[in-house]
Amino acid sequence: MRTHRRTFMLHSIGAAALAISGRNVWAAPPQLQESDPAAQALGYKTDAAHVDRAKYPHFSDNQRCTNCQFFQGKPTDASALCALFGAKQVSGTGWCNAYQARA
Fold first, then answer.
1. pLDDT at position 7, please?
2. Average pLDDT over residues 10-31
3. How many domains does the chain have?
4. Which of 34, 43, 61, 82 has the fewest CB atoms within 10 Å, counting from its CB?
5. What's the mean pLDDT in 28-44?
6. CA 70 centroid distance within chain
7. Does residue 51 contact residue 59 with C-beta atoms inside 8 Å?
8. What is the 3-state secondary structure (H, E, C) of 45-56?
């Protein structure tokens, strides 16, 4: 019985510490916005259909974040982290100028 009480107290203290700190460790990372300076530097679009083909002539219709080597999710994920944008998620249907096809 003493072990269960000790475990409960340790878990309660940990939960209270998280609540007091205001951090939500279970929250999903924020979505990358097209207005973000890093996104603008790489021409990121949340929907590849809106890529400026005159500005990025090497863009091809089959290029999407989901099939880029920097996309850290599964090809079926709607969004996931991108190795280029740190702790922000990119749209699976998005595109940026650093696109590299998955091997």
1. 59
2. 63
3. 1
4. 61
5. 96
6. 11
7. yes
8. ECCHHHCCCCCC
21-31: burial string, b at 16+ Cβ within 10 Å, e else: eeeeeeeeeee
Work out the widest C-alpha separation in the chain, in whole angstroms: 71
CA distance 43 to 40: 5
Average of pLDDT values for 35-58?
97
Q: Does 18 map to a domain?
A: no
Report how far residue 1's alpha carbon sits from residue 47's, in angstroms, rounded to the nearest whole number. 56
**One-letter identity of residue 25:** V
Spacing of C-alpha 69 from chain mean position: 14
Q: How far apart are CA 40 and CA 89, in angstroms?
A: 15
Q: Residue 48 is part of which domain span?
A: 29-91
State the Cα angle at 45 between 87 and 82, rounded to 5°. 25
